Amino acid sequence: MKKLYHTILPYILILPNILIYAVFVLLPLVWVFYLSFTEYSVISPAKWIGLGNYKAMLSDSIFQKAMMNTMLYWVGTIIPIMFIGLIVAVLLNSKVRGMAAFRAAVYLPGIISSVAVALTWLWLLNPTQGPINMFLELLGFNTLDWLQNTKTALPAVMVVGAWTGIGFAMIIYLSGLQGISDQLYEAASIDGASAVRQFFAITIPMLKPVTFFLLVTVTIRSFQVFDLVYVLTGGGPVNSTTTIVNEVFKAGFQEYKMGYASSLAIILLLITMLITLVNYRYGSKQDV
Amino acid sequence: MKKSKKTGLILLVSIMLFIAGCGQGGNAGGNASSGEDNKESSSEKVTLQFWYPGHEETITAPVKKLIAGFEEKNPNIKVEYTSIPWKDYFQKLTVAYGGGSAPDVHGLGFGQLISTIDQDKYMDLNPFIEKSKWDGKEDFFPDVLKAGEWKGGQYGLLMPDVRALVWRKDFFQEAGLDPNMPPQTLDELFAYAEKLKKVENGKTVRAGLDIATTNGEQNFLSLLLLQGADYYQADGMPTFDSAESIAMLNKLVTLKKNGVIIPYNSQRLEGTLFQNSEAAMGLAPAYSLIQLKQAVGADKIGFALPPKGSSGKQTALMLGTFLTMSKSTKHADAAWTFMEYWTAKENLFQVATASGYVPPRKSLKEDYLKLAPENQTVFELLNDARGFTISNSWAVNSKYLRNALEEAYFETKPIEQALKDNAEKAKEELKLK
Amino acid sequence: MKLQQNSLKRSVIYAVLILIAVAMIMPLLIMIFTSLKGDAEFASEVKTFLPKEWKFSNYILALQATNWAVYFKNSFIVTVIAVAGSLFFNTLSGYSFARLKFKGRDMIFICLLLGLMVPAQVTIIPQFMIMKSIPFFGGNDIWGNGGNGWLDTYASLIIPELSGAFGIFFARQFYLSFPKELDEAAEIDGCGILMRYFKIYLPMSGPIIASLGILKTVAVWNDFFHPLVFTTKEAMRTVQLGLSVFQGQYSVAYNLQMAATMVVSLPLIIMFFVFQKHFVQSLLSSSVKG
C-alpha cells in the first residue's frame, strides 16, 4: 500500500499543472502540427495538402532570410545577455552598497512593455534628432540612419533585445547565487584561493543548473522575438530584420495563410528542440 | 526556521486567493450565461454584436450616439458595440471568424475584405437592399458602392477615406513657394518636393514628400493611379513591372538619392512623416490630420485634389472601412435594419463628419459644404476615386511589391530588375505561370 | 596594504556597476522626461533631452483619458490569482521533477518544454476554440456547444497561466542545486515526500518565489495578445488593452503615451521593490548553518 502511494504520489503532485498545460498548450500544439499540413485561411475550414507548405518553404527566399536573421539574433543577444547578466549578478552579490538601486536599474528595462521600449528606442535611434547620433556627431564620427540601413538595422534590434533581456538573466543568476553556501567560499579563502579562482572553481560549477536554465529559456525567447521587430522595423529594410515569428505573423494574419504559418512554427519548434536537447545533455550530466 | 512560518503563511494566503479566484472566474461565466438565456427566452428582443475598428474618441463618440438613437427607434434590438484599435483589429476579427464567433455586423478593412471575399463568409446585401428599397443604392457615389461589389453581390458599404494632396503652408513659405498654390501636375509635385526638402549638415531633416519606403505600397499606388496604372489586375496578374511603374519608381529612387525622401516604415507607431512635421507634402486621408491641425494650427495645412498625371488623370486612392454583415448571423434582418439606419442620410452625415471621413452620399453635398468651404475639394475627390482592385491576389501582390520597392529604395537591386523579379515571384506563388 | 587593495577592488566594482546601470537606465529616464514634455515640443524641429517645461498635467490627462479603474481592477484580479496559483503549482511540480523518481519523468519534462517553443500567433486559434467550448460554462452544454465557454471571463485569462512550463523548469533547476544531504537527513527523520516539500523545500524557496513571482507578474501583467483575443466586453479589458486603446487614440502624442505607459508600469515597479529584498536573503546558507 505504502509502495503504491509512493509510486503514484509524484504523478498526483504534477497533475494539476500538467492537466491545465495539456489542455491549453499541448492540445493546441498538436492542432498546429496538423494545420501545418493544410491550407487554412482561418476563416474557412482547413484543407489537407500534405507536405505542400514544407515544400513551399524551400523556395521561399524571405523565409530563408528570416531563418538566418533569427539565428543571428539568437547569437547576438544570448551572449551579451548571459555574460553581462552573470557579471552584474556576481558583482551585486558581493554586498555592495546601494545594491537595490543597481538591481532596479538593470532590471527595470525588462518590466516595461515592449511597445514602450520600442517607442523609446525609436527616438534614441532617430537619425537626425536622436541622442545616439548627436553623441556620435559630437565625437566626430559619421552618423547613421540605424534602422533604415540594411547593415545596421539587425544589430540595432539586437542591442534593444539584449537591453531588455539582461535584467532577466541577472535576476536568475542572483537567485542562483543565493543557493551557494557561504561555507564553500570561506573554505576556499582559508585555502588561499583568489577571488577569480573562486569564481571559476566554485561559482561557475555551482551555477550550472541555473546556466542551463538560462541557456534554454533565453534561446527560446530569442527565437520567439516578434514585438520588437514588428514595432522597430516591421522586418525591413529589405527583410534585413525579419524573423521567423514575424513571418509567422505576416503569413497567418496578413496573408490568411495560417497553414503555412503553422509549418513555419513547427520548423521553429524543431530547431529550438534540437538546441534544447543538446543543452539538456550538458545540463543533466550532473543531475540526480 | 523562523522564516518557514512566514513562507507558509504566504503560501496559505496564495492558495486561498486562488480558490476564491476560481470561484469568481466561474461565477463570471455563470452570470454571462444566465444573462444570455434571459435574452433568448423573450424571443422578440435581439442583441446584435457590432465590432468597429478605431478607438479614437472622434469615432467612438458618434458611433455611440448613433447606436443610442437606433435603440430608441428599435426598442427590441440591442446593439453591443465593441471598439478595437485598428492595429489589433484584424487579428481579433480573424480569430473570431475562425472560432465561429463572428459578430453580426462589423467593420472590415479594405484589404481584409478583398482578400477574404471569395471565402463566402460575408452576407450579400443586395436582397436586403432590394427588399427595403434602400435609397443609398442611387444616392451613394457609384465608385464607393463599386468598392464592395464582387461577382454581382454587394458585400460591404464603404465608409471611404480618400487620399488628397496635403501640404504645409508654413514650409511652402519658407521655401519661397506660394502657400496657396499646391503643385498641379506630377512633375510639379516632384519639383516642389526638391525645393521643400530641408538639409542640415548634409542630412535631410525634413522630407519634401512623404513616401514610405517600407510597407510603401499604398503611397506607390496613389502615384500609379495618377498615371492610370495599378499594381495588379482583377485576375491577379501583377502589373507592377509595367513601364509606368518602372518610370515612377525610377523617379522616386532618384528623389531618395537626392535626400528628398526620408526612408521609413508606413506602419511605424509614431505615425507618418507628415503627421510629425517631418515632411512638407504628402498624400494623406483627411482624418489623419485632426491631431496635427490641433498641434500646429489648421491654417498651416493645405488640402487639395492630387496633382494631375501626364495623361491628365487625377484619380485619388480611396480606402476606408466597410460596413459588413457576417453570413453566419442569426439576426440578419435586425442587422440590416442597423446598417440601414447607419447609412441613412442624417446619421451618415453625423458619423462621417465627426470622424473626419467624407459622407459618401451625393445628396449630402450642400450640408457638407456648409461645414467648411474646402470640403468642396474633398467632395470632388469622390468623383474619381478607387481603391484596391478586388482580387484575392491582393495580399501576394502587395507583399512582392513591398519587397520590390524596398530592394529599389535601398539599392540592393537595380530598379527594373527588382520589379521584374518580384513580379515573377508573385506569378509563381499565384500559379499564374 | 591589503586594505588598499580591497578599496581599489571596490572602486573598480562600483565603476563597472555604475557604467552598466547608467546605460540601462538612460532610455528609461528618456521615457520619463518625454512623458513630461508639452505638445509643442514635438511639433518643433529641435528636440531636447530635458523638457523645456515640466508638464505634470500630462499624467492627469493620461489618467482621465480612459476607463483605467476597470482595467486596473481586472489586471489586478487576474495577475494576483494567476501568480499565486502558479507559484504553488510550479514549485510543487518543480520539486517533483527535481527530487522524485518516477517513470517517464524526463519524457514528461521535455514535453512540457515543447509548449514554450511555439509562437502564440499560431496556437491562439486552437486555444480560442478550446476556451469557447469548455463544457457547462458560458451557456455551453456537456459537449461544449451552444455558448461562449470561458470567453469573456476571468477564467480565460487566469486558468492557462496557472500552469507554466517556465515556472516548473525554473523551480526544478533551483531545487537541483539544493544539497542532497538535506533529503537524506529528512528521510532518516521519517519525513515523507510531501512533508519534505513543505518542511524543507518550501521554507528555503524564498529567493525562488521572489524571482519567479516577479517574472510571472511581469509576464501576466504585460500580456496583451491573449486578453485581446479572449475578451471582448469593455468590462473585461486589462491594462494592456487599455494602453493599446490609448495609443490608438493619441497616436502622435508621445508625451501622453509615455505617461500612460509609466502609469501602467508603476505597479510592476512597486512590486519589484517589494519583492526584490527577498531574493538576497540567503535562506539556504542560513538554514544550513543553523
Tell me what you see in this structure.
Chain A is 73% helix and 1% strand. Chain A has 13 helices and 2 strands. In chain A, helix 2 packs across helix 13 (258-284), helix 7 runs antiparallel to helix 10 (208-223) and helix 10 (208-223) runs antiparallel to helix 13. The longest helix of chain A has 34 residues, at 2-35. Chain B is globular, with a radius of gyration of 25 Å. Chain B is an alpha/beta fold and 433 residues long. The longest helix of chain B has 40 residues, at 2-41. Chain B starts with a helix and ends with a helix. Chain C has one domain: MetI-like (MetI-like fold), CATH 1.10.3720. The chains are: A mainly alpha (288), B alpha/beta (433), C mainly alpha (290). Chains in contact: A-B, A-C, B-C. Chains A and C meet through helix 1, helix 3, helix 4, helix 5 and helix 7 of A and helix 1, helix 4, helix 5, helix 6 and helix 7 of C. Chain A: Belongs to the binding-protein-dependent transport system permease family. Chain A: The chain crosses the membrane at residues 12-34, 71-92, 104-124, 153-174, 260-280.
**Arrangement of strands in the largest sheet of chain A:** 1-2
User: Would you tell me which CATH topology of the largest domain in chain B applies?
Assistant: D-Maltodextrin-Binding Protein, domain 2
CATH class of the largest domain in chain B: Alpha Beta
| Cα separation of the termini of chain A | 26 Å
- Overall pLDDT level of chain B: 85
List SSEs of chain A in N-to-C order.
Answer: HEEHHHHHHHHHHHH
Give the tags:
heterotrimer; A: 288 residues; mainly alpha; MetI-like fold; two-stranded antiparallel sheet; 73% helix; C: 290 residues; flat; disordered C terminus; MetI-like (chain C)
Short description:
The complex is a heterotrimer of chains A (288), B (433) and C (290). With 433 residues, chain B is of the alpha/beta class. In chain B, 49% of the residues lie in helices and 16% in strands.
